[in-house]
Amino acid sequence: MDEHLSVAVAALAERFGAQVSEFRDQVSVLLAPEHVAAACQLLRDEFAFDSLVGQTAVDYWPEEQPRFHLVYLLYSFEHYQRLSLRLPVNAGVLTIPTIEKVYPNANWYEREIWDMFGVRFEGHSDMRRILMPYDWVGHPLRKDYPLGYEEVQFSFNYDEIDQRKPYARE
Amino acid sequence: MYEKTEITLDELRHLVSDRALEGETVLLNMGPQHPSTHGVLRLLLELDGELVVHCIPDIGFLHTGIEKNMEAKSYEKAAVMTDRLDYLNTVGNNLVYCLAIEKLVDLDVPPRAQAVRVILTELQRIASHLVWLGTHALDLAAMSVFLYCFRERERILDVIEMCGGQRMMATYFRPGGLWRDVPIEFEDTVRQILKDFPARIAEYNSLLTKNPLFIERTQGIGVLSREDAIAWGATGPTLRASGVTHDLRKAHPYSGYEQYEFDVVSQTSGDTYARYMVRMEEMRQSLRIVQQAMDKLPSGAVRSNNRKFVPPPRAELGTSMEAVIHHFKLWTEGFPAPKASVYVAVESPRGELGVFLEGDGGPKPYRVYWRTPSFANLQVLPLLSRGHLVADLVALIGTVDIVLGDVDR
């Protein structure tokens, strides 16, 4: 691990109890979600991680603790370094603080996570759906959301599937 | 999956200024079928006379659920979906997806395959910039540029068709290398392009660069400061036109870009004209890279020999039992990837195109996230358009160079 990066990661570990892992020379930091805004502030102001590259989530359903990992990808133009933050989110509490105040472009990424995974961001200025229609129900990238195929009906389970089949209604 | 609910006005009130509520400003809908929105982008505009007070992009009309679909396919089969994201940079999408898989499973790529990947992605960059140039000029009422650009672009698509069998959705790059070697005519065709294109690019330059009407429409329009560009996550030519000399091909070389000499083009004024200048010069730099890659194109295999990830050639199937087993395993089940995640990014014509790929130990990607440059750059549009005329907004949509397939995924 590069020197500058290891100092930044050590600071995160010290102040927020973050755990560091490395895979194929890529460093990622596991961080409690309540510290995310402060951690991003620290990384931006003191360690020159001036750019938020992207934000996404991974669903670990049916696991509940944690149900999601939010992944924040940061980049430093000064040091040419990448760092990813992983925030475990448990199934009961699907609200975490926004980082929009630190990185303004988090606006759309957080809207996308809300739309696709149903994790809400507290203090976000515009928490609407972004890709799906506004009256859509459900969050498509969750693992318990079906891909949209039709279940095959056999003679032994015809009625059972028939009952829950979404027919076009008037 | 729809719930019959009306969207209440309260939910949208924070998007517009108080003057809109009093009727002082007008709300106007632009798109999604407007020709200058380059696809299906819908903009809600709050206008004070002809000036844009707020511009609220509404995206998702081309959302096709590619990320979700990829989770249901094996690593290699999911590659066909990658072309469909950014349909002007098809081989570039293949490239970043293959690089992500290669990083995740630690797979080697032969030098010849790497060089062909560079040649094709750089040609594709030129093709993509040509489409941008043509449509951008068309938006600013310079019709003839559009016709020239599309004529030239077709020659590049011919090269891709020659290699992969399709003009656009070729899926020519596969994990571990290429689908097959380039055909015999490849060399002559690319050499001919290299011979013709500098003069053609000079011709487009002479059509627009000093054209007073074009300058009037672009200089000082949509100025993006260096600080804003970084804070709002702009990448690619949009970032470089604002004075940040940053290119992933130089900063984090992949596919052997460190062997080639080229300049990272940047400008400092950050306006629409600067972005135009950056892209025009980038086409020349791409030609330089292609020239060098053609000159030292190594011979040899175009796909890794690691049979756990790459299917054996057809010819081996008749003689080797092991080849049959590998073939069967790879085409029925696919190859497993470790339970870990990687993030790999390349410099697409529009900026940083990244893939976050997470495996779960099985043969299908557990999660694929596409960090697309158009999505990030489009977020800058409200900032750029504030206080400009509606007519300039058309120039601004063109200058951020979005592809809606890339925005909506």
Q: Brief description of this entry?
A:
With 170 residues, chain A is of the alpha/beta class. Chain A contains four helices and seven strands. The termini of chain A are far apart.
Content of β-strand of chain B? 5-15%
Taken from the alpha-carbon principal axes, the silhouette of chain B is globular
CATH superfamily placement of chain B: Cytochrome-c3 Hydrogenase, chain B
**CATH structural class of chain A:** Alpha Beta
| Helix percentage of chain A | 25-40%
Structural class assignment of chain B: mainly alpha
Distance between the termini of chain B: 20 Å
Strand order of the largest sheet of chain A: 1-2-5-4-3
Task: Classify the fold: give the CATH topology of chain B.
Answer: Cytochrome-c3 Hydrogenase, chain B
CATH topology of chain A: Beta Polymerase, domain 2
Uncertain stretches of chain B: none
Determine the strand fraction of chain A and express it as a percent band. Answer: 25-35%
- The top level CATH class name of chain B: Mainly Alpha
Give a written overview of the molecule.
The complex is a heterodimer of chains A (170) and B (409). Chain A is an alpha/beta fold and 170 residues long. Chain A has one domain: NADH:ubiquinone oxidoreductase Nqo5 subunit (Beta Polymerase, domain 2), CATH 3.30.460.80. Helices cover 26% and strands 25% of the residues of chain A. Chain A is built from four helices and seven strands. In chain A, the strands form two sheets. Chain A has a five-stranded mixed β-sheet with strand order 1-2-5-4-3, with helices on one face. A two-stranded parallel ribbon of chain A has the order 6-7. Chain A is elongated. With 409 residues, chain B is mainly alpha-helical. Chain B has one domain: Cytochrome-c3 Hydrogenase, chain B (Orthogonal Bundle), CATH 1.10.645.10. Helix content of chain B is 48%, strand content 11%. Chain B is built from 19 helices and eight strands. Chain B has a three-stranded antiparallel β-sheet. In chain B, a hairpin with an 8-residue loop joins strand 7 and strand 8. In chain B, helix 5 runs antiparallel to helix 6 and helix 6 runs antiparallel to helix 18. The radius of gyration of chain B is 23 Å and the shape is globular. The two termini of chain B are 20 Å apart. At the A-B interface, strand 3 of A face helix 3, strand 6, strand 7 and strand 8 of B.
